[in-house]
Write a structure and sequence with these properties.
It is a single chain. The strands form two sheets. A three-stranded antiparallel β-sheet has the order 1-2-3. It is α+β, with helices and mostly antiparallel strands and about 120 residues long. The chain is flat and about 50 Å long. The protein is built from three helices and five strands, in the order ββαβααββ. It has a domain of about 55 residues. The longest helix has 18 residues.
Amino acid sequence: MGHAIFGRRLCGVTSRRHKGCRMSAPTDNPLDRLCRLARLRPPTTGRDELERRLKAVVSAFADLREVDTGGVVDATPPPGRLRADEPGPVLTVEEALANSANKAADCFLVPRVVEG
């Protein structure tokens, strides 16, 4: 079974979107805050590992603040200067599915991401 980005479970965290869950009280703990914002309920076991991994991600983004971007040219086009949205070449079904890991009857097969 593949990993679903919006699935009920991802990396040991369970979704809080089902009925009967209450939001946790506000806290200064970054993991608790993230879980509250994302409506996730972390498991009681492995919490230290999740906190360690979250701190590593936050630290990596903090390191990006130190990068000198003074000489980087802004690649955002000015308003109104976007290219025209015109149709281009169309892929055949075979071309579109060529790199798909799972396919059937000319369709992509993906893990279920919506409950029900």
